[in-house]
Specification:
Chain lengths: 186, 228
Amino acid sequence: VKSKSNLLGNAYYIFLKDLRLEFRTRYAINAIILFAITTLIAISFSIGPINLRSEVLSPLLWIILFFSSMSGLSHIFVREEEAMMGVLVGNVSAFLIILIIGSIGLSSVATIIAAIIAQASAKGTLFAVLAFPISVPILISGINGTSLAMDGEQFSGCLADLQILFSFSIVIITLSLLLFEFIWRK
Amino acid sequence: MMFYDRIWWKYLLGIWMTLIILAAFLDPNPAKINMLGNTARIIFFHVPVAWLATLAFLISAIYSVLYLRKQEINCDIWASSSAQLGLMFAFLATVTGSIWAKEIWLSYWSWDPRQTTMLVLLMIYAAYFLLRSAVENEVQKAKLSAVYSIIAFVTVPFLVFYLPRKYGFLHPDAPATSGSKTDFVMDGRMRVVFLGSLVGFTVLFIWLLRIKVNSIKLKYLFQDKNEL
């Protein structure tokens, strides 16, 4: 029987290993920078000097978040949000908390689906098709929450969206812990 | 005699559903007491169908858990059959709702939160069958789709019950569950017909599920015979 601290410790070592590997190869870093610049240019170019409403900016942000997490570049969002949205956000703390919990949720969905796909014989586009519908509850409440936070809504106003994000992430992470051994057991 | 003993309830169900359909269309009350007029009659068909979709996904998740515990192919047959019926009923709920929306909201599709979440549910379970078709090994297929079915089902409470109510929709709802902008009211007789329809559709679903499961089992049986 694994204890909880052991599990977290193992996860930490895997995280450290991945981090070192990435810094050694620099492949991921380069990909992230290119991806950030490309999306930034594409969106800034299409928006131009117009000040878009938060109802438009918020879905744009989550589309970038979703696609970067789907392509395995989930850590991109920090840079992205500083570059694009930093100036516009009304309630920064609520905005950041929603982004962090939302990306935890997105990456938990992505992880369990990736584990399933890794065992499937035909991979291809299967990952996005399986992961997108499952992450819709995160996207809907994330978009709504960040939109409210951009407009300077109080923390209590964003609480309902945070509750959905939090409960959904917890449910997915718990299920992943329970189901993971079934996926990899031969 | 055995034959008649076993199918008596199917005749009963036929008579039962005929009565429900007659009552649903001939009872004058639904049109009178609701501001939705004659379109209020959709509740006798649309709601049971949506309820069956949820029930079918629940049964699929339960059999998926059973499969992971017992590793019996039988459980996988039940889980996939139920998911297939659930997908069909979810599709029927979307289509009936869409026809109703044309009459009331003047458009088949208006991205109401209720419509959107139902569409997402359809996508989730369509992906379930995509996953099944992507895995060739039978044991592997059963195992992976069982895991996916359980994960898919935890989105159902969010998509069906919580999100549409939270983000305020035009879809009519029972007065008790606030959040809807249109309350749906029923008198005693309507409620009887509605509950009768729920029961009838549920029995129909169990019948369909048994046919589906038996047909897949027969297919396995013949495959084994051919191999021998």
